[in-house]
Amino acid sequence: MPTNSNPPLVAALRKKDAYLDSVSKIRFQETVSSYLFKAGDHFYKIKKADSEHTSLAVKQAFCQEEAKLLHRLNGEELKAEVLPVYQNGKSFSYKNETGATAVDYALKTTALSERNLVSHLLDQKKLSLIAVGRIARKLAQVHSDFPANDKTAYERGRADMLRSLCEDMLYQMKRYFDPSITQPIIDMIRHPLDKFIHSKSNVFGKRLRKGRVVQGHGALLPEHIHIQGETVRFLSPHEVYKKYSVLDAAHDVATLMVELIVANEKELADHFLQKYKEASKDKDLESILPAYQTYCALKHGVLTCERKVALQDESLGPVALEYFNLATRFSRTISKD
Asked: Which pTM value belongs to this model?
């Protein structure tokens, strides 16, 4: 786990008197990019300062953008607000007292039970077909409600955009593995992808015209989905990936399907796809889905490699290779198309 780069602020916000609400217990967690505090019925996230988030204004904008994203994905089902963190002398809190100055910003949301995260339900083998169907319908509704604007859609929905995204992942893949291992995999992936993208430009154009390039989620992983009864909430990732959120609707579908397949839940993956197709009436989805599944498997393999390095966890190496092998399997599906 990374070392705190702002220990005075973190230490202060782990105390109950730093909060505007009365809280009985505070739970703290640190990730590579954020400080996370569960205080009472609410969850607070503070972005660490880095090369992209150095100024107070940028941090505020980051929080506001994520709050906007949560509202777009969930409406009133998940409240989110941006709070200043004040410094008064040597103390830090959310209280704007005399002499206090805003030094940071936090995103405050309703605390949700981790037991209802799809990641937890998968681990416990408790994710049901009914729940997967509800997730599919929710996703189809988000895609229907938020198509991308014409200019953005054209830029993000083109065939050469998918090629560029895949090439980037293949390049990153070579950085982490011995070339003798990765080059055969790369060749088996790149050749079918290039052939598919060249021959199916009409499909990409057709989907653009039908509004299938959307403002989606961008990282629809199991840990970003919360389901409680009939209510499905889509949580934002630790980063707001703009370049991943505006893509063909197939990207969000492929993202979750890849994770379900890796979890050995192919039946759930197939059911999710079927229910999404029914809800969205997306008849062309399966013609383009294997290409996006290939891309998502590559991307998650690279992200797993990055986590391996950041956490110095060698056990993640085989996990990353599993994703890359899965990308190869998807590319074979493309070559049969």
From this structure: 0.89
